[in-house]
Amino acid sequence: MFYHYIAIASDFVNGKRIAWHYPSDEKLDKERIRQFMKNAEKQGSTFFGVHKLTTHSKDWESVVEKDSFFEDVLATENEDELFRMLEEDKEIYAMDVATFILALKSMSHLKLQKLLYLAYADYLSRYKEPLFKDDIVSYKYGPIVEKVYQLFKKYGAEEITDSEKYAFCVKDTVVPPLLMKLSNSNKGEEAIESILNTIDHYESYTANQLVTLTHSKDSPWSKTYSTDQKNTVIIDENILKYHVNESIV
Prior knowledge:
alpha+beta; 2 domains; four-stranded mixed sheet; three-stranded antiparallel sheet; 10 helices
């Protein structure tokens, strides 16, 4: 009989669950497990789902064979490799922010794009560094992130109907999974606060009102958009300089 200790984390960048797998043909070494958790805490990685089970083999395949729950888990016995993957996952991307917003409130794609941009502008204005790495570009209807646009454009003017898939339930509370990633990211609580402030500030406005807002005179979009040169990147310098002109008082 073999004993297995499995600590699962979510690899949000690659859309998979990843795990540290500790198999043993004897009773699990509690000190080794404690050391792993200490090392994880030092790395800033503290969100794990822990599982223990027994199988006929030390191989990961025996775990999957026993319980299909583990089928899509990428497992490694090398904790350094796990921490390397989690470290890469600390970077925030536009899709992280977009899915976090959708987990909190259903909305149209157009409104999502505006809130995504305004959250970026808010964070940049507060901390003088970008909220996420993706470029924001100027489209006809305002600033957008192209990757997010390509994913959600199929909804047109309708609300994004599958936003519930971006949340999960813990007891009686619905919690966005991205909350864990954002908390554990290199921008941490500041990023969450900036996103929540943006939603609270602008959620009562319609998509069209937000379009009007981001098209205001001397807005970052107005300083970038040209019918002759579409999809131009809106640079941070312009957002820092002109964002005040599109802010709602």
